[in-house]
Write a structure and sequence with these properties.
Radius of gyration: 21 Å
Strand content: 25-35%
Order of helices and strands: EEHHEEEHEEEEEEHEHEEEEEHHEE
Mean pLDDT: 86
Number of helices: 7
Largest sheet: 11 strands, antiparallel
Structural class: mainly beta
């Protein structure tokens, strides 16, 4: 089996409720037996979810947060408790929700809730499709499927892709899903659900995975569909610089990326004799930008920004021993064609205290200080990554070397400046751009099955010291 690429557009730099509401997930609380003919990956359970303020017993411990003006932190139970709070988070003016989004709203600070895939009953290439955004109380089965804990009275918001647009056929106007995002401040969590097809007997959903042509007509993200919850920062006016040390003002420190997450369902089943992967995953994506570089102009050869992708929960049909999967146990640096060639650092967190190394250079990309990535359901885990400034500079050298067609060890200061600007080694110029929790499923088979249901309760990106 092989690595499946991500749909990253939702975190890129560069209606009414239908009368025939799609009855999704009424049975997802039940454990599913893996198909004997398919070679499944992952499975369903119904664990409770915790939150940062009051984690259940037995969850991973976390070091204290350094905080300060260069840190971004969200605890759902205390920070996302009203519509006004959603509008103001990350320095935003108003949240933005859509399916297959494009345009300037994605570049503005604030909360983005987005879904990606193919809407077969709508016009080809339709963008900025409508998303229902109504207060709702998720049904019990859905809460369990995404590992949302129980709660009392409080703010709840529900987002689902909707066909209520002239770009969709009349028979699709009441269609929804299958992707869904629910914020429940009572439970202190945001839940996401992503699937490659409707539940049996539920009727046709609005969105399916892209076909073989992919997202761009060239096969990129073929057979993928995804859901994103993204916080985009006001990096120009109020930049947060996570590599600036609190203990030693003006000097480089260690950036910390922390999140508490849960998985209620993670399923990837393929038909007998399958030759292509079927996969489901939940991941964290964090983007950074060099302010001085961006001020001088950005291009494909001068990206000025990069993104880290951390698979936190992943299942692929046919894989049961992930310790033997080379692409999972190592990291890589690559360039995303959907985002104009943006450099991507991808790697799953290893065990606490271990570093993940680049598959080509052998260099350490980051170090884990929390839970390793998982492959099935779990109740509440703290994933905690540390990136030293030296590790960041290693990535900058790898990228510059790729562009100059020389080994990273032979990259010159001039080549680094050509790619990242003259302030590439200044920690005060590296700012947080985006933080996203997302899911993606990949399924090229009509009789395959891929779905993920999970939640997050807390996020932190900032200095460690």
């Amino acid at each position: 089996m092989r690595r499946i690429g991500y749909n990253h557009s939702a975190v890129s730099f560069s209606g009414r409720r239908g009368a025939a509401h799609w009855p999704m997930l009424t049975a997802l609380a039940m454990s599913l037996a893996l198909a004997a003919c398919g070679g499944g990956g992952g499975g369903d359970t119904v664990p409770p979810a915790g939150n940062e303020g009051n984690p259940p017993s037995g969850v991973d411990a976390s070091d204290p947060f350094a905080g300060g003006p260069n840190a971004f932190r969200v605890d759902v139970a205390s920070a996302l408790t009203s519509a006004q709070a959603l509008d103001a988070v990350a320095g935003g003016q108003r949240r933005f929700a859509s399916w297959n989004p494009v345009g300037g709203d994605m570049l503005k600070p604030g909360l983005k809730v987005n879904f990606f895939g193919r809407a077969p009953s709508c016009e080809t290439g339709v963008a900025n499709g409508p998303v229902e955004e109504l207060p709702a109380a998720p049904e019990d089965a859905w809460r369990r499927a995404v590992a949302l804990g129980e709660g009392g009275d409080g703010f709840v918001a529900d987002w689902q892709p909707s066909g209520e647009t002239a770009a969709c056929a009349a028979e699709a106007r009441d269609a929804q899903g299958p992707g869904r995002v629910v914020l429940d401040a009572r439970a202190g969590a945001v839940g996401l659900y992503t699937a490659s097809a409707a539940k049996a007997g539920a009727g046709e959903p609005l969105m399916l995975p892209y076909d073989a042509a992919g997202q761009d007509g060239k096969g990129t993200n073929a057979f993928n569909t995804s859901s994103f919850v993204t916080f985009r920062m006001d990096w120009r006016q109020t930049p947060q610089r996570p590599w600036l040390s609190n203990a030693l003002p003006g000097q480089a420190g260690v950036a910390r990326i922390h999140t508490r997450q849960a998985i209620g369902t993670l399923v990837a089943n393929a038909p007998t004799g399958h030759t292509q992967p079927v996969q489901a995953k939940q991941f964290l994506a964090v983007g950074f930008i060099n302010n001085a570089c961006a001020a001088g102009g950005m291009s494909a050869s001068r990206p000025c920004q990069l993104k880290y992708l951390f698979p936190l929960a992943i299942a692929q049909a046919g894989i049961s021993d992930w310790s033997r999967v080379g692409w999972f146990t190592s990291g890589r640096v690559w360039f995303d064609p959907v985002q104009g060639g943006m450099p991507i650092v991808e790697g799953a967190p290893p065990a606490r205290g271990e570093a993940l190394h680049d598959v080509e250079t052998g260099a350490a990309l980051f170090t884990s200080a929390g839970s390793p990535a998982r492959h099935g359901a779990f109740a509440d885990k703290a994933f905690d990554v540390r990136i030293s400034f030296d590790q960041l500079r290693t990535v900058l050298r790898i990228v510059a070397g790729r562009q100059a067609s020389v080994p990273a060890s032979q990259v010159t200061p001039e080549q680094l400046a050509a790619t990242w600007g003259s302030a590439w080694a200044d920690p005060a110029q590296w700012s947080l751009l985006t933080v996203a929790v997302a899911q993606e499923v990949h399924n090229p088979y009509a009789d395959g099955e891929a779905r993920a249901g999970g939640a997050f309760s807390a996020l932190y990106v900032g200095p460690q010291d």
